[in-house]
């Protein structure tokens, strides 16, 4: 479902070069929860941002659901194909990235507005999504009235608005306490099972990997140093 081949990213800023990814090969199968773990600076965020082309890789390829995203025209003139492919990739963020001036429902409706659904369709879809994440009764609240876990549920509902086949999660539980973390991870697992959603998550916590992932990769210094099924990985000394 997600394949990266020889993915390399070099950042250039103020005359300095930082190679954040050195030829990363990743293979995430359809319907699995795949975790990428590593310490800060390992290249995890760069990797996940390259997967949905928020960041253009310097070289190598990214293929999601059979579409080679890196082969599609991007940048300012990002073509229809790339926009459509990206719509099928949901993204969840560490700090939720909700608009504080909009209600929960309006936050979830935002991507639906961009797709061009009319008001009635948007309402119905947003209500469905909020029910799915267990927030059906908070549609009219503002983000500031919610707990961290509830905010992340809104973030997840919004990420699901385009009916994605793939959900990318960038440290989705890092700002949450352990109990809330467990409930959000359980939600991701439930969505994975109910919707057949493929989940690629990055985290610096091995516990997150152990509790929800089917497979995982360990990154260090911009490279995948180990990967495979979770049982195999944990069996290693
Ligand atoms: P992680 O998510 O594992 O903490 P990152 O992908 O954020 O790792 O960072 C990998 C490396 O790339 C780090 O050395 C970081 O400083 C560098 N880096 C990340 N983003 C940028 C950027 N926009 N410009 C320059 N260097 C960056
Ligand atoms: P993370 O939690 O992923 O390690 P960071 O704090 O490293 O995040 O990075 C936060 C933001 O700053 C990211 O958007 C990243 O691209 C950018 N960034 C990280 N390192 C650098 C750098 N050395 N130069 C410029 N931007 C950077």
From TrEMBL:
Alphabetic keyword roster: Amino-acid transport, ATP-binding, Cell membrane, Membrane, Nucleotide-binding, Translocase, Transport
ABC transporter domain boundaries: 2-237
Record keyword Translocase present: yes
Molecular-function GO term, any one: ATP binding
Keyword Endoplasmic reticulum tagged: no
Protein name as annotated: ATP-binding cassette domain-containing protein
Organism: Kitasatospora terrestris
């Amino acid at each position: 479902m997600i394949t990266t081949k020889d993915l390399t990213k070099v950042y250039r800023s103020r005359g300095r070069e930082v190679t954040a990814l050195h030829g990363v090969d990743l293979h995430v199968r359809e319907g699995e929860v795949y975790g990428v773990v590593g310490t800060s600076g390992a290249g995890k965020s760069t990797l996940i941002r390259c997967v949905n082309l928020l960041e253009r890789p310097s070289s190598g390829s990214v293929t999601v659901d059979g579409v080679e995203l890196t082969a599609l025209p991007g940048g300012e003139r990002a073509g229809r194909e790339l926009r459509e492919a990206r719509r099928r990739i949901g993204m969840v963020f560490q700090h939720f990235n909700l608009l504080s001036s909009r209600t929960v429902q309006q936050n979830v409706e935002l991507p639906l507005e961009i797709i061009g659904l009319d008001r009635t369709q948007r309402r119905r879809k947003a209500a469905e999504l909020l029910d799915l994440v267990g927030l059906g009764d908070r549609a009219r609240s503002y983000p500031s009235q919610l707990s961290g876990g509830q905010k992340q549920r809104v973030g997840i509902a919004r990420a699901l608005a385009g009916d994605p086949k793939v959900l990318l999660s960038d440290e989705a539980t890092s700002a949450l306490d352990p109990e809330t973390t467990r409930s959000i991870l359980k939600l991701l697992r439930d969505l994975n099972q109910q919707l057949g959603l493929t989940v690629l998550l990055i985290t610096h916590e091995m516990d997150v990997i152990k509790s929800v992932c089917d497979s995982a990769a360990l990154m260090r210094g911009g490279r995948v140093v180990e990967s495979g099924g979770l049982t195999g990985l944990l069996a290693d000394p």
